[in-house]
Amino acid sequence: LPGRYHVYVRDVRAEYEHVDDAAFAAGRARVLRRLLDLDPLYRTSAGAALWADSARRNLTAELDALT
After folding, report:
1. Each residue of 25-42: pLDDT tens digit?
2. Which of 7, 29, 48, 62 has its CA 20 to 30 A from that of 14?
């Protein structure tokens, strides 16, 4: 995962370390799908212009790694 997104992913997993891997993957995949369904992902034009493309790439790559 590019940039610092991999650090975020690691930290999210650490926050839910009490959840087994299968349950975490299923729950996280649901969250990622909901985020990817948002249109727009960012509600401001600045957010959309600056971060939407890379955010969607990161979310998709994380989802692919989980499934």
Report:
1. 999 999 999 999 999 999
2. 48
